[in-house]
Amino acid sequence: MNDKEMDLNNIVDEVILLARTTGAYLASEQRSLQKQEIELKGTRNYVTYIDKEAERRLVKGLRAILPESAFLTEEETVTFEPRDYSWIIDPLDGTTNYVHGDSPYSVSIALMHETKVILGVVFDPVADQLFVATGNGAATLNGEPLGVSRQESLTNAYIGFGIPYSLDSRGETILVNAMKQFRNCSFRIKGSAALEICYVAAGISDAYFHSGLSPWDVAAGAFILECAGGRCSDFSGGDHYLFGKEMVASNGKLHETLMQHIITAE
Q1: What is the DSSP track for 150-217?
Q2: CATH code assigned at 59
Q3: Contact (Cβ atoms closer than 8 angstroms) between residue 161 and residue 190
Q4: What mean pLDDT comes out for the span 8-22?
Q5: Tell me, what's the pLDDT at 68?
Q6: In which domain, by residue range, is 207 found?
Q7: What is the average pLDDT value for the chain, to the nearest integer?
Q8: Fewer Cβ in 10 A, N or C end of the chain?
Q9: 0.90 cut: is pTM over it?
Q10: Is 86 a residue whose pLDDT tops 60?
């Protein structure tokens, strides 16, 4: 193990602790959240003082870990300035679930070096599930190695998906294509993109697709999935999923079939 790897391992331990303490804060605040304290950020898209406070805590903690790093954040409590290392964070992924007293929701943290994600942590404080990755083959759930499923066909596949706040004609076509597969597969909407991608990494789900996503929704989860042996792409099959606002995540074996019959089918 070289010094760089040792440093990354030290960093991930601190990030895990920060994710857990932020998750504990979210869980505590959810129990006392009143709906009149919710501020509408857009149709079906909520933001609370809790999102913003959780983000401030994350930024403060992560800045202490890497003082020269930049931040790309959902609530924009800090201004993004391009640097060699950037944190991509969502303090509360699954806000709609959260404000209705539901689950799942998660804390999502990714570290990017230049244009490549090198660390991912996603924490579900309700289920106490901690997904972590620091490199290929090094993806874990609560310390145990992750591995994708072996499902190769749509028949009996277990697939997660999401519906964006603004649904265009292409998105509507994809949903219609999915409906045609209802007799073949099981579809689920869980409401936290970061976690749903991690479920694919853990072999719980076989695939996941969603449009209208932001980098903080997918950066950590996609890295964890790829480290667990899965595959991510945009709706054209390319690699523009981090900033391209669309994601297909799979165990790899099911990817082309999913693309052909649901994502790109006319």
Answers
A1: ---SSTT-EEEE---SS--HHHHHHHHHHHTTTTT-EEE--S-HHHHHHHHHTTSSSEEEEES--HHH
A2: 3.30.540.10
A3: no
A4: 93
A5: 87
A6: 158-263
A7: 90
A8: C
A9: yes
A10: yes
pLDDT band at 43 (very low <50, low <70, confident <90, very high): very low
CB burial of residue 66 (10 Å; 0-12, 13-18, 19+): middle
Mean pLDDT across the stretch 168-180? 90
- Looking at the structure, do residues 75 and 140 belong to the same domain, yes or no? yes
Last residue in a domain, options 98, 124, 145: 145
Q: Is residue 161 within 8 Å of 187, Cβ to Cβ?
A: yes
Are 219 and 227 contacting, i.e. CB atoms less than 8 angstroms apart?
no
Q: In angstroms, what CA-CA distances link 166 with 18, 36, 40, 45, 210?
A: 33, 25, 16, 11, 12
Give the residue-averaged pLDDT of 129-157. 94
Quote the pLDDT of residue 228.
Answer: 96
Instruction: Please count the CA atoms within 13 angstroms of the CA of 34 that sit on its side-chain side.
Output: 2
68: which 2 tokens? 């020269």
Are 18 and 133 found together in one domain? yes
The token duo for 143 is 């310390």
Count of domains observed in the chain? 2
Torsion of CA 87, 27, 250, 148, to 10 degrees: 100
Residue 133: is its pLDDT beyond 70?
Answer: yes
